Each structure stands twice: as C-alpha cells, then as structure tokens.
Target: Gamma-glutamylcyclotransferase family protein
Amino acid sequence: MWVYCAVSCLYSCALVMLGAYYNSADTIYGEEEGLHPVFIFGAMKRGEPMHHWLENPENGFCQFITKARTMEKFPMVIATKYNVPIVFYKPDVGHHIHGELYEMNLRMIKKLDKYEYMPNEIIARIETIMYNDSKTQELVKRPAIMYVKYYLDIDNWEQLPLVADYHSKGIHGLEFKERPVKKKSKKKRKHRSKSKKDEQSDRIKGKNNTEAELEECIRRKNERIQKHLNKTLIRNHT
Model:
C-alpha cells in the first residue's frame, strides 16, 4: 500500500513540476488583471442548457471569441445521473474536442473553478486550442484553460460512447439535467419553557401586549433602577 502511495505522490509531483496539473484556473492566472482564455466544450456552450450561467453578470464577465477544437485527442463521455459531458485527461484517446473559446475575467474564472470542481472533481489545466482565423483562414494555435477529470472513477466509462462535439439534445438521447442548488438547512431550535426573565423581556419588548402594558413595564423598570441608584448614593454618603 505504501509503495502505491509513494508512486502516486511522485507522479503528482512530476505533473506539477512539468506545469501540467493545476487545482484551478485561479492558481494558473493568480491575480492577473484582464481577460484570460478559457475553452468551453459542454453544457455552457451557446444554445446549450447552462449557457445562461456565462451570461449572468453576477458570475463575472466573459466574451465569445470563436469556435475551436483541441489540438490533442481526449475521451469525452456523458455520465452521472445529470448526464454531464466529462473529458478525461487521457491524451490520444477519443477525438479532437470541439467547443468554444471565451475570454473571462478572474471573477468568472474563480466561480467556474468552484462550479466545475464541486460535483465531479474536474480541474483546470492549460491545453492548446486550434481555430481558423476569421480573416485569413489560417490555423491559429492558442493556449487556453480547459476543465478535465484526472481520475477515471466513472464505472465502465470505456464502454460509453465517445463524443467529439457535445449537444444536450444530440442523438445520444442523454439530455443534460441541471443539478439542484443545495440550500443551507436551518437547524430547528428546541422548544423550551419560558423563564421569568424571558417573560419579563417579552413584556418590555411589547410582545403580545398592548401599548398601555408596555408603558407600565417600562415605568416599573425605571422605578427599580431609580431605587437602586438611591441606595447606592446613600451608601456613598454614609
């Protein structure tokens, strides 16, 4: 077991040293201002169910650049109960992945990191993206962030059909399902009987009382305070 752990650790370290492995796009760009290239190939493409996420100003800013594809081949499958398109980091297997190149600000990149990582441990890495220049039609190669999955932990993924150009309503019949947002559960407070202090506090705050009762409570409280002050003054003079 310890041999396996040691080998895994060395492999991860080697990836980091080569600049191939990153936990998030945020760690790649740091705090650099401006817009940064990100390659989108799944349900956030234009015309797909999650494109509204990119258009939401609360998530940050992005702009569409062009349609593009990866220089290397990767296996992309549709998996999980939500029919999510996932690209495994297994180069030279599958197809050139077709998608869209965007430029995003850091706010959107940070939110995209969390969105991609949370359910399926999908992380960011830099890949070479290719597209044809709209003016010259020349092939352009450009590095961009791409979200991939390193761990091949989806059951029988090799038996799933490999996709090159994802569309939610494609012939595969596996329409994308947006995962529900988890709401923070409010803990129910245990019911306890009110003490005299609580009842007094309720009276002072005017809970379940008329204005006349509230004024009476305040008057009595002021009387008690005044009596206490008088006693203190008498002790100080004697």
In short: The two ends are 83 Å apart (CA to CA).
